[in-house]
Amino acid sequence: MLLKGLPRIGLGLAALGRPGYINLDRTAQIAERSEEAMQQRAFEVLDAAYAAGVRYFDCARSYGLSEVFMRNWLAEQQQLVPGDGQIVVGSKWGYRYTANWQVEVPGGGAHEVKDHSLEHLNAQSAETLATLGGGGGSGGNSYLKLLQIHSATLESGVLEDKAVLSRMAELRDAHGWRLGLSLSGVAQGETLRRALETGIFDTVQATYNCMEQSAGQDLLAAKEAGLEVIVKEAMANGRVLRSPPLLAAAERLGCAPDALALAAVVQQPFEPIVLSGAVTPSQAESNCEAMALAESLRGIGEVEALMEALVVAPEAYWQERSELTWN
C-alpha cells in the first residue's frame, strides 16, 4: 500500500502553486502574488507542514507551479532520501493551467482547461516526469509515487478510453507509480463505481466534508476493494468554517474550527488521508492538530452530531461551489 502508515493529514498545493484560487478570504491571507513570493510562501507552508508531521503532498499540472515549488523545496531537504518512502508526492494530469499567472483572467476566461485525451496524458506525464522525477518502485530515486487523473467524470469519457487507461498502466510499469483518479461534482459516487470496474486504480481522491457527504458509502466500498482514499476540500473551500454549528462545537470542545472540520473527516470509516489546503504556516500547524483531535473525539458522538447538523444536498453544495470567485 502506498499511503499506509503515513500521517492522516496531507498537504495539497492547489492554493499554493498559483496566484489565484477559489478559497474564501484568500486576499487577506496572501498579499504578494509574484512567482518568487508564492514560492517563498510555499516553502514556509511546506516547512511548517513537514514539521507538524505531514508526509503526503499533492500537486497537479494545472496547479500553476506546484510541481516546481515541490521539487525546489525537496532539493533543500538534506535530511530526506528520495525513494525511501518517508515522503510521498502525488500529481495529476488532465487539466491545463491557462491563467498565465493572473488572479483574474481577462474577459472572464478559464483558469484551467480539461483535456483527458491520450495526447494530453502523454504531454503532461512527460512534464511531470521531467519536473519531479522517475518514480518510486523498488530502487526508485524519486519522491513521485502517484499519478492521478484530474477530476475524472463520466462525461469526459476518460474511464472508457482504453488507450488512455492502457497508457497509464504502461507509465505505472515503467516508473513504479501507483495510479489514481480525483473526482468532482454531484456524480462522484457514480464515477467511482465505474472506476472500480476498470481495475487499474490504487487510489481515489474525492471531495468530502461536513457539508458534502454524498460519496461516503462509495468511498467505503472503494476502501474495501483495496483502494486508498484521499480527501480534498475537507473545509469546503472555507465555507464550512462559517457554519454556526461548527463554530459552536469548536468553542465547546476548546479546539480550532479548522482542526475540528478536518478531524471529522479523518474519523470516517474509509480512513482517508485528508488534504490540508493551508496557505500560511499557522494554518498548516492548526490543520495538523486534527490528527490528535480525531483520536480524542472517538466514541463520544461529537463528530456524528456535527456531520448530521452540517450536511447539505450535493446539488446545492456544488451549485454554491460553482459560484465561488477566483481571488
UniProtKB/TrEMBL annotation:
Record Gene3D superfamilies: NADP-dependent oxidoreductase domain (3.20.20.100)
Domain of life of the organism encoding this protein: Eukaryota
Domain NADP-dependent oxidoreductase: 27-293
Protein name per the record: NADP-dependent oxidoreductase domain-containing protein
Coiled-coil residue spans: none
SUPFAM superfamilies: NAD(P)-linked oxidoreductase
